[in-house]
Amino acid sequence: MKKVLIFTVSAGHGHNSAANSLKKELEAQAYEVLTIEPTKEISKSLDTIISDGYKVLATKLPKMYGTLYKISNYQVLNNRLTKLCIRTLEEKIYNIILEHKPRLIICTHPMFVNVISNIKDEKGIEVPFISVVTDYQAHKSYVNKNVDAYIAGSIYTKDSLIKKGVDGNRVYAYGIPVRREFHTKKEKNESKSEFTILLMGGSMGVNAIKKSLKNLLKVDYPLRMIVICGNNETLKKSLENKYGSGLGNKIIEIIGFTSNVPEYMDISDVIISKPGGLTVSESLIKNIPMIIPYYIPGQEKENTDVLVNAGVAKKSEVKELSQIITELIENPVMLQKMKQNILEITKTHSLDSTVDLAVNLMNEYEEIAERRIKYGG
After folding, report:
1. Interatomic CA distance for residues 286 and 200, integer angstroms
2. For the chain, which has fewer Cβ within 10 Å, the N-terminal or C-terminal residue?
3. DSSP 8-class letter at 294
4. Superfamily classification of domain 3-175+349-375
5. How far apart are CA 327 and CA 349, in angstroms?
6. Residue 137 and residue 299: Cα distance in Å, rounded?
7. pLDDT (tens digit, 9 = 90+) per residue, 190-205?
């Protein structure tokens, strides 16, 4: 059985989610797929520093995180610690490649792009390499000549890669991989009486969601609000205590961690959330306009700019949410226009095309190897 390696990391939810979606799709095509987090393979301490470090910076010190993101997008960080981490990762990943002898390598985090590229250059590893860009503007760390193909979330992501010097023929705007359940289209119940809002972003903390919900209660029209708290049990319990039975003409459903997000999106008119790459992709595939009242500086700021400029989302202060929802209810043409704009972005999105690309790359490399054996050189 042909083997595929997917390298990922637990810095945010999106990278692992994209990796797992690809794993499932490739396994359905009879490939053996291993998703590996090299930082965990090296040491728990390194993995904790990377995953928890991201969480602390992004949520507790967002301005610092945004500054570091911006600096690293324009210059390479060449300090001794960075070089030591890269060399350690190279040794670990090279040994993993030797052990498993994959026919294809995929990475869903940019920290591995240059590492794998160096291995290909220095060790002569001839394996096709796909990089999945999990945000809507490509960071400089994604760019490398040894990447055979990029999977991009949109034509805007593709343009950002081209501007950084990547050959456009190597970039495919097939969409950030999400679970196939999100690609299943269900007809919305147009006769429902309440405008339905899906409110997400539990990772932003208790106050952000509480303030958003409080402002939305100012809308005069009947609303159904589905609040997904994720693993934030503190937030869930707090909201249940206050809004568990709804309020006036507002139906409020408080949900913890759930795998039923596709179904909740099917019945929602808009989503209010922070713009993480995977959440954005899931919303776009489900054709739900987004309202963005909070984001983490760095890639989520860039995602916000792309979405607003494309006319598929509205940026908002929390205190403006009720006004925006009222406008959308009173002007359904505005909401419909946003939905049409979403269809324009997602017209190239395809899980099947992503899988076909992976299979074709493996076949191309195998044909080249066979010709070398047959004719020499």
Report:
1. 15
2. C
3. -
4. Response regulator (3.40.50.2300)
5. 30
6. 7
7. 666 789 999 997 555 5
